[in-house]
Amino acid sequence: MSKNLTSRTEDYSKWYNELVVKADLAENSAVRGCMVIKPYGYAIWEKMQAELDRMFKETGHQNAYFPLFVPKSLFEAEEKNAEGFAKECAVVTHYRLQNDPDKEGKLRVDPEAKLEEELVVRPTSEAIIWNTYKGWIQSYRDLPILINQWANVVRWEMRTRLFLRTAEFLWQEGHTAHATESEALAEAELMNNVYAEFAEKFMAIPVIKGIKSESERFAGAVETFCIEALMQDGKALQAGTSHFLGQNFAKAFDVKFTNNEGKLDYVWATSWGVSTRLMGALIMTHSDDKGLVLPPNLAPFQVVIVPIYKNEEQLTAITDKAQGIISRLKELGISCKFDGRTTHRPGAKFAQHELQGVPLRIAIGPKDLENNTVELARRDTLSKEFVAMEDLVAKIKGLLKTIQDELFDKALTFRDSHITEVDDFETFKKVLETKTGFISAHWDGSAETEQKIKELTKATIRCIPMDAKEEAGTCVYSGKPSSRRVLFAKAY
Amino acid sequence: MSKNLTSRTEDYSKWYNELVVKADLAENSAVRGCMVIKPYGYAIWEKMQAELDRMFKETGHQNAYFPLFVPKSLFEAEEKNAEGFAKECAVVTHYRLQNDPDKEGKLRVDPEAKLEEELVVRPTSEAIIWNTYKGWIQSYRDLPILINQWANVVRWEMRTRLFLRTAEFLWQEGHTAHATESEALAEAELMNNVYAEFAEKFMAIPVIKGIKSESERFAGAVETFCIEALMQDGKALQAGTSHFLGQNFAKAFDVKFTNNEGKLDYVWATSWGVSTRLMGALIMTHSDDKGLVLPPNLAPFQVVIVPIYKNEEQLTAITDKAQGIISRLKELGISCKFDGRTTHRPGAKFAQHELQGVPLRIAIGPKDLENNTVELARRDTLSKEFVAMEDLVAKIKGLLKTIQDELFDKALTFRDSHITEVDDFETFKKVLETKTGFISAHWDGSAETEQKIKELTKATIRCIPMDAKEEAGTCVYSGKPSSRRVLFAKAY
Fold first, then answer.
1. What residues in B contact A106, CB-CB < 8 Å?
2. Do B69 and A34 touch (CB under 8 A)?
3. DSSP A304
4. Confidence grade of residue B3 (pLDDT, cut at 50, 70, 90)
5. What is the ipTM for the molecules in this complex?
6. Which of A36, A98, A156 sits opposite B132 (nearest CB)?
7. Which helix (H) or strand (E) holds A322?
8. Which of A45, A44, A17, A294 is nearest to A152 (CA)?
9. pLDDT of A296-320, one tens digit each?
């Protein structure tokens, strides 16, 4: 366990990369741009999955599974979607290997086994799913269809970073079909709200709900709702998106239904997704120079007990005590691990659990046995105190709630202090470089201005916030009239 | 909802294919050999996953995730494994599409975007995982590694059938690394026992635990443990396998560790998996000519309530009553759905729930409101009875247990009556064609005899049962000496 984690001020990007690897969350694999998610990282992802899955089911959705491959002819059917993803598609062209006649013990692609039609490894599943829905929908009685899929997808990105941008990533993608435009729009907004609630209540990450500008919209969508978070380095991160797809995919795949007036119409659609990218958001929102800081809701184990002993007898007595604590915590649904490894000293264990962000650490030594106390340490504040055994369980229960709340509050304070209203372009550029964070500014609504600002500053429009007030103003770049402010930021 | 399900005696294979589709479990997709798992089928798979995942974690395993793609050079490293899977590999050769200059609005593979090294879509993950483990293991202190992965895999099968054999399927694959041979062997057998327990207690499918003959072994394994089930048509189905891999993969990927005596040695390995094929086993073990029969443990909902009414007032009263039943069942952890659809008549609902195998059906009509009773129907026996409201919840709780047990007993009786001891080859062939099922016969242990028997009868050695007694005899085909009986059968 190395102590040499680069500090955030020294090099934020390096700090992130090192932390992901040293905290045993993930690592790069032998496959370009693809990561291995290690057990500790995957355990966090499983907790996210479980909560999201519960929320999806509570809002009436069911899970299903659609093929990994999309035949090229289906992939290209919805033109904008195809155009948006064509440049990052992994393509299967052959279905067999054979012994290489030139190289003993090596294999080569069998040239005889070429597919008649190439298969795209799904970068997203609208095409294969809407081609399937065509067979499921005849009448309004077949609607709505409210389906979610947990799956891997592949987007051949040129520059990748663990969790934030990988060629293969894990995600969920909801795909719903509706009889009316208003119902589909309401669904898209509902699921964006579900994502926001999940991010804030479960991940302790404050987010801004908004809609994307046209150029930042999902390829094939009519409207993209999103949640935007702010990382500690002042860069924004899109944490989830929910798309109102209009009738675009229904038209591309000819999915019509008889409505309740007996007339034929195209079906209305949404899709929405969050991915293992959320792991990156989690890490960059809460962690510090000593390592990961995990909100108790997402910690693989919420409490760890480290015994401090000089002989077997002491260890036995401490272990006994620890087992009692663990079973009482378990009754309250609190997960606690006893770190009884004899191969590591307490100091090394402390450092590891700090690095891995375990919310609470209990140390029990011989003195504690005598006094009937333990030492309880908080990972987020690094504060320590001695707690009497009889108060311990109640104390832990309260602290876990406190930590969850305070992590959110801290992130919210940071975020809110990094939204700056700006009305001229010189200040815009200065704030972006010095203060960083979101800039709330007027925009004339044109893609040209958006593009120009991006070229000049690397800032993009993160969203038009759902709660943006009507306010007459002039565009921060063009000086043209504008009716409300939007949020700009540099982004991951 | 069609009533025209082909009967099992008429055409078992057709019955199966129709049932999978009509019960809304799965359907074929636009991608050759790949299926869409529909929400009702996926809900059953989720129940299997949850229980297996619980069992894996209880036996000390953690989940992780490894890349979908395996670079060809890694894939070919373990020669037997590579040879075993080379003929069914989907291969990614390119990473980009572009507009087709010859066809307006169409895409083609960008010839400039050819990968330097082809990527195999994982047919199984030993290669990519052992290449990763190499970086994780230095000393015996790093062992054991006990990891499981839930994932999709692709094997380009020429003849596919929903759930039983599909080009893409969902599975879990455990991959463990150990310091000693005996520990790895014990792990492989332990996980085969976990599969057996899961199949019997949870799926109500009796299985025979055994080891595979050399020619039926997993490519790259030293020993393959398996569980074998018997379907209603007398054909066997391999329901799960657990492999002792020896040091084969450690040698292929050069994974050495310092043992507790300070000496370098290769690491010992296991891998084990079950897949969506279990859905096929489930369907073919319990279902009947009216449709699916589900063990209560796996039913997406265990009880359904159908209201029978002539007017709104009756429907309201029945709905009230139903809600009361549902909430009392929920307290006991029993899932119950109210089928209040106004678009379908009770008869159609009955047929659908029969087809979909809901274990218990409650019908409530106006007479029942008067008498304070309900009609309760069992899906497995198709028996019906009137039950007083005050007895209902206890009755349901008891019946769900009874159904789970009786389904297992029924399958066990069928299975046990279809294991036939045979001592000459004429009888062997006759039993195989007329009575079907497992044939317990002596075998001389040679691959030649095994192959010959397969050619002549299509029967393969399903396993050498773990509990096979030492018994002197002569091979049913060659007449050579044999020390114990093995199980032959035609198989899925």
1. 76
2. yes
3. E
4. low
5. 0.97
6. A36
7. helix A312-331
8. A45
9. 999 999 999 999 999 999 999 999 9
